[in-house]
């Protein structure tokens, strides 16, 4: 993120989730986060942000909300949203969107940003040569990775990173926003556009990424080449039978949540999905995977399938998720006693390097 258009925004990461602070919308205030720390991979350098946030140190690698800053007049100008990192449901929604909008169409124009980070050193000219004039045959997905099959190789592969996504002009997009107000931008092409495709029917497809943590790669055979070839089973399409899944868990001594987050084990499961599945399956996220009983693995498998199919069926629109899901209250950490909608107390710990929301009286 660069200083300029984003001078009034800051995103601080916490595991797979993020806290975004927007100026000009006073519904929520930064003082709710006084004394809290957030992991972050960048800083805008904007002087307003430096007054509000102080670096905690290299060991913590976090930004800390200064208690003294929140009383300043500036603090009242900030609003807080939680924006989860794109996981399998969001990527599957993007795949389905591309299937409707792009499959069968020919690419007649390609605009590619010069971004050696997102494109991993591939030049805009090479990207244009690979895509211009090609017909889109299919849109495929494995885990959090998405690619387009064209009538000639190589094919473009997308990973959304922290804030990337696919947009089609004129089509509404859904974002998982846990709290706060959705921010719909009327601009086209949208800001942070990295790849812009024009199709032969006039449709336009964009890959956007504000954080530059996403990736666009060219691959001749995506499932057979890294990084996709290194992934485990797709958690939606390839969920193993119970006996096979039990054998896979039996080989792992790590905490069950860490195993679920391991993309070489189950591709597509991220932080909020793992928390939701373990909450609904009534399993303590700290349990060692090889200690799970057959009954517990059966519950976990059933809830994993249910959570993913429900999220995908609802278009990855968090506003439509079942009201009793942990999803809606899992990041109420700023409350003195955060509770689920059922009145259960939510607790927080770190498992596998990720902040974890769980309910001790339910999860064993």
Protein model, in words:
- By secondary structure, the protein is an alpha+beta fold.
- The protein has three domains: 9-82, no CATH class; 88-230, N-terminal domain of MutM-like DNA repair proteins (Alpha-Beta Barrel); 233-358, Helicase, Ruva Protein, domain 3, CATH 1.10.8.
- The chain contains seven helices and 18 strands.
- The protein has helices at 47-52, 88-101, 124-131, 242-250, 256-261, 271-281, 294-313, and strands at 9-14, 17-23, 37-39, 53-55, 62-65, 78-82, 107-112, 136-142, 145-150, 155-159, 164-168, 193-199, 204-209, 215-219, 233-234, 266-267, 347-351, 354-358.
- It has a four-stranded antiparallel sheet with strand order 7-12-13-11. Strands 8-9-10-14 form a four-stranded antiparallel sheet.
- Strand 4 and strand 5 (62-65) form a beta hairpin.
- Helix 6 packs across helix 7 (294-313).
- The longest helix is centred in the last third of the chain and has 20 residues, at 294-313.
- Mean pLDDT is 80; it is low at 1-82 and 177-183.
Helix-strand category: alpha+beta
Looking at the overall shape, the CATH architecture of the largest domain is: Alpha-Beta Barrel
Biggest β-sheet: strands ordered side by side in the sheet: 7-12-13-11
Contiguous low-pLDDT stretches (5 residues minimum) are 1-82, 177-183
Number of domains: 3
SSE topology string: EEEHEEEHEHEEEEEEEEHHEHHEE
> Largest sheet, if any?
4 strands, antiparallel
Helical segment count:
7
CATH homologous superfamily name of the largest domain?
Answer: MutM-like, N-terminal
Radius of gyration: 21 Å
According to CATH, the fold-level topology of the largest domain is N-terminal domain of MutM-like DNA repair proteins
**Percent of residues in helical segments?**
10-25%
Please identify the top-level CATH class of the largest domain. Alpha Beta
């Amino acid at each position: 993120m660069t200083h300029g258009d984003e001078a009034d925004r800051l995103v601080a990461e916490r595991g797979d989730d993020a806290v975004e602070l927007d100026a000009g919308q006073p519904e929520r205030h930064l003082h709710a986060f006084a004394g809290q720390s957030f992991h972050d991979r960048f800083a805008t350098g904007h002087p307003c942000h430096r007054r509000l946030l102080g670096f905690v140190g290299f060991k913590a690698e976090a930004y800390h909300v200064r208690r003294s800053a929140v009383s300043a007049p500036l603090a009242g100008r900030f609003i807080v949203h939680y924006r989860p990192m794109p996981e399998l449901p969001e990527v599957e929604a993007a795949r389905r969107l591309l299937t409707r909008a792009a499959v069968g169409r020919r690419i007649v124009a390609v605009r590619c940003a010069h971004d050696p980070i997102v494109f991993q050193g591939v030049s805009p000219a090479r990207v244009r040569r690979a895509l211009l004039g090609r017909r889109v045959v299919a849109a495929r997905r494995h885990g959090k990775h998405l690619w387009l099959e064209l009538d000639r190789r190589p094919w473009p592969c997308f990973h959304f990173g922290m804030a990337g996504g696919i947009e089609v002009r004129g089509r509404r997009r859904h974002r998982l926003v846990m709290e706060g107000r959705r921010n719909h931008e009327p601009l086209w092409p949208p800001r942070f556009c990295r790849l812009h495709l024009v199709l032969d029917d006039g449709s336009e497809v964009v890959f956007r990424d504000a954080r530059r943590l996403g990736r666009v790669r060219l691959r001749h055979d995506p499932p057979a080449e890294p990084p996709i070839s290194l992934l485990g089973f797709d958690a939606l399409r390839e969920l193993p039978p119970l006996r096979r899944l039990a054998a896979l868990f039996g080989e792992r001594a790590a905490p069950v949540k860490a195993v679920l987050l391991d993309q070489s084990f189950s591709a597509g499961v991220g932080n909020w999905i793992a928390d939701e599945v373990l909450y609904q399956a009534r399993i303590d996220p700290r349990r060692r995977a090889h200690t799970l009983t057959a009954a517990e693995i059966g519950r976990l498998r059933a809830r994993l399938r249910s959570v993913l199919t429900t999220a995908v069926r609802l278009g990855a629109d968090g506003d439509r998720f079942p009201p009793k899901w942990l999803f809606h209250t899992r990041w109420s950490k700023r409350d003195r006693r955060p509770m689920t909608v059922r009145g259960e107390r939510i607790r927080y710990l770190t498992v596998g390097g990720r902040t974890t929301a769980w309910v001790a009286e339910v999860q064993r």
